[in-house]
Design goal:
By secondary structure, the chain is of the alpha/beta class. The chain contains eight helices and seven strands; from the N terminus they run βαβαβαβαβαβααβα. The termini are far apart.
């Protein structure tokens, strides 16, 4: 019986998705890989299928939409969510699972060791600011609220009321975790530069959206 689903939301990650899947397969885990193709226009789906991953299709664009679709189809008791751009090393999955086995409900991998060129200066400052804002608003110190690597107990996810369609997803996960009074653990992880040399997709407008989501979520019942 499969113990953990590794969930990979993906949009046009033809060059990276195979590397991510192979990275996961190198681990000694009893797992399944679930890719949610978020309306890709290249060979992302074909690449994932060829490597044995289960692929779902989400036609409404947005990372939040893809992840929420994935969550609905997960049956194993544990879930690890990773971005599909090969920036988050799969070797940290066992560390996440160890935290859950030791009592954590939710685990965030915070980007402690970042490769040169992996994040722009503006993204670094923005992520720090958003993490500080989240920590102050909710009274829980979070080191990387925008991280793309999370672990969960599946029964926790069943109680979440996620509303995010796009890049406010991680803020939504954090808000639901804190308001649900679930035990949160955080582990340091490495963060690679993207294969094509680009930086994070989040822009200034996305940062303001995340900030507003955190503020609004704090005072919403």
């Amino acid at each position: 019986m499969v113990d953990v689903t590794v969930l990979l939301p993906a949009f046009n990650e033809e060059k990276a998705i195979g590397r991510v899947i192979q990275d996961i397969k190198a681990l000694a885990l009893n797992y399944e890989i679930l890719v949610v193709d978020n309306k890709s226009t290249n060979g992302t789906e074909a690449e994932a299928t060829a490597l044995g991953a289960k692929v779902l299709y989400e036609g409404e664009k947005g990372k939040g939409n893809a992840v929420r679709t994935g969550f609905k189809h997960i049956k194993p008791p544990f879930v690890v969510m990773i971005d599909s751009d090969f920036t988050y090393p799969a070797k940290h999955i066992p560390e996440i699972m160890e935290q859950i086995e030791n009592g954590a409900d939710v685990v965030i991998g915070y980007r402690h060791k970042r490769a040169k060129g992996s994040m722009s200066f503006m993204n670094t400052i923005g992520n720090w600011g958003l993490s500080m804002l989240a920590s102050i608003l909710y009274g829980v110190r979070v080191k990387d609220v925008c991280s793309g690597m999370w672990g969960f107990r599946r029964d926790v996810l069943s109680s979440y009321k996620l509303s995010s369609g796009g890049f406010t997803l991680e803020a939504d996960l954090f808000v639901n975790t804190v308001k649900g009074k679930y035990k949160l653990a955080q582990i340091p992880i490495e963060y690679r530069a993207r294969l094509d040399g680009s930086v994070a997709k989040l822009g200034i407008k996305d940062g303001f959206k995340i900030a507003w989501f955190l503020i609004r979520g704090r005072f919403r019942r």
